[in-house]
Amino acid sequence: MHPEDSFDGKAEELIRAGRFFFERGWVPATAGNFSARLDERHVLITVSGRHKGELRAEDFLVVDLDGRVRSEGRRPSAELPLHLQLYRRDAGLGAVLHTHSMSATLLSRLHRDEVVLEGYEVLKALPGIQTHEARVAVPVFENDQDVARLAARVEECMAARAGLPGYLIAGHGLYTWGRSVAEASRHVEALEFLFACEWEMRRLGR
What we know:
Blueprint: H1 3-23, E1 33-37, E2 42-46, E3 60-64, H2 80-89, E4 95-99, H3 102-110, E5 114-118, E6 135-141, H4 147-160, E7 166-169, E8 173-178, H5 181-203
Parallel strand pairs: 6-7
Antiparallel strand pairs: 1-2, 1-4, 2-3, 4-8, 5-6, 7-8
């Protein structure tokens, strides 16, 4: 399939995800960025600086896995290397979603190494988890304006820790992914709920 053949369909899926996330306060202002795989060599990603609750098809562009822009006149998010690192690592990956919720951002400032999630039924929404008795440690990376360097640190961590459902960047937000936009959106919803629970537990001093 030519990349343009699936452009409109993938863009529409990401537009719906953007509205859903914005309504829940997970992508304030122009925060966040979304992408979806078009074929084995190309992905669709949001144009830099666009409001994620008001996305239109022209707010996306096509890049190849080497980062070359295939949509003339459009500039991708500066965080493109974080998306491409994931697509290059896993040929079956269909979408990468990045959100900026308050609870995820605050937790990432309190926990410099990882945020541990355990004992929650909603953990079963994440891949490979069959019971609430699971323990998931979501790594936290120090924020870095050198995004290529940050992507290299993520790659190093993922090479050592198989099966991560996502990660946090300190003071920044969540990255998660899935085999499709729908699956990645479910992972966003599950993780954001779990982070909100953890934040409330801390507010209650538990």
